[in-house]
Automatic annotation (TrEMBL):
This is DUF4180 domain-containing protein. Residues 13-122 form the DUF4180 domain. InterPro entries: DUF4180.
Amino acid sequence: MTQEPFTMRDMAGVPVLVCAADGPPLADERAALDLIGDAGYRGARWVAVPAGRCGDDFFRLRTRIAGDIVQKFANYRIGLAILGDIQSRTATSTALRDFVRESNRGGQLWFLADEDALAARLVESGT
């Protein structure tokens, strides 16, 4: 039985495209546009991607991959949530730690532990 690449969920009244743990990596703008297309087609306002699907270069800010991907989502007015434990990555990179902190203060990109945290954040933000 093949797992669906994503599911649509209603979280606090917000339609969210939740990506499966297995699937293509969110490694470049093309992958971002594929997710944005799926989200737009289904009416999602947020996309939740497991952190394990973000390649190493996503978390190396000097590659600019994360920024390029986030910009694509912003252009289409779709929020992006990276779900999972990235503490081992932020522990070794001050720049990444600062990026995560600043992103979590905004309304476009959030780094959260899991779907429950995303649902709570959506309630809190009134999104």
